[in-house]
Amino acid sequence: MNAFDLSPLRPRLPSPLEPVEDERFARRGLTLMLKRDDLIHPDLPGNKWRKLALNLEAANGRPVLTFGGAYSNHLRATAAAGRLLGFPTIGVVRGDELAGRPLNPSLARCAADGMRLEFVDRATYRAKGEPATLAALLERAPAETYVVPEGGSNALAVRGCVELGRELAGAADVVAVACGTGGTLAGLAAGLAPGPGAPPAEGGGRALGIPVLKGGFLGTEVRALQEAAFGGARGEWALDERFHCGGYARTGPVLEAFAQDFEARHGLAIERLYVAKMLHGLVTLAEEGAFPAGTRLAAVVTGAPEPTDRP
Ligand SMILES: Cc1ncc(COP(=O)(O)O)c(C=O)c1O
Question: Which atom of ligand 1 is nearest to the CA of 161?
């Protein structure tokens, strides 16, 4: 039994599932629901909570070391969890040129939450998965430090995201989610699949991943993450790679106009780097006639906008 208690964080689970009226879906006989994972916790919104929860239980109060870029949501969430639950955190940040400069607002929040920041050059950062590089980083960390990979995606994170699929199973036929590392999609698809005892005719929902990075590597990653988490493939999932808008953190006038319009229609602030791309993909697919009438669609709102990623 693990004694480490996450309940002081008081997550809002299951997260709300809100039907929205949107004529771009209604006119094709589709229904749209927003899975409001952004409301799970103010400091660990969306997939941050789902991916960190089992890792923090496994760390059991030991120091946690993890990795991220200068604007990493994952670093901020880990730092906040450390402050709220009282364990030390170390953030390995990509880019040693940042070391001598004033911290940007995102890293300043990490530092204010007590995270020790270690800036490393890009070559070291790229090699962080190699045993020698990791050992060198851990030499400067306290003994027994628990390591969470970049973006928080490991087998425990994928298992934590299974619950997202379970919360939606039976309520949605297709669930769209934005993908970075693919960990959230890997768990979501598994949770949507009918349980071992379910009659085959009932079927399960399928997950639709919208990658926000360019590259076409994500399918392999999702398969590897499912293998690590479950020992094999789980659930039904597909990717549509057309909506990354040029790559990570790239946006543009079309995406911006889409997001502002969605915000005006539904009174909801939209995070641009992941959630806007996913919604843009889902609306485009609906308009292309990709879903038969009667399909119940859910869009996972995996995060909330930060002042730093708003124009
Ligand atoms: C808001 C938001 N949505 C989606 C994702 C993608 O998650 P994953 O890396 O598990 O694919 C991230 C990154 O963690 C994120 O910050």
Answer: 10
119 CB-side CA count, 13 A: 12
303 lines ligand 1 (CB under 6 A): yes
The answer to pTM > 0.90 is yes
CB 297 within 8 A of CB 173: yes
Domain end point (choices 81, 116, 144): 144
What pLDDT digit, counting tens, does each position of 124-162 carry? 999 999 999 999 999 999 999 999 999 899 999 999 999
Residues 184 and 257 in one domain: yes
Q: Residue 274 C-alpha to ligand 1 middle, in angstroms?
A: 7
Please choose from 40, 43, 47, 217 the residue to mutate so as to test ligand 1's pocket, defined by most ligand atoms within 8 A of CB.
47
CATH number at residue 174: 3.40.50.1100
Is residue 2 included in any domain, yes or no?
no
Is 183's C-beta closer than 6 angstroms to any atom of ligand 1?
A: yes
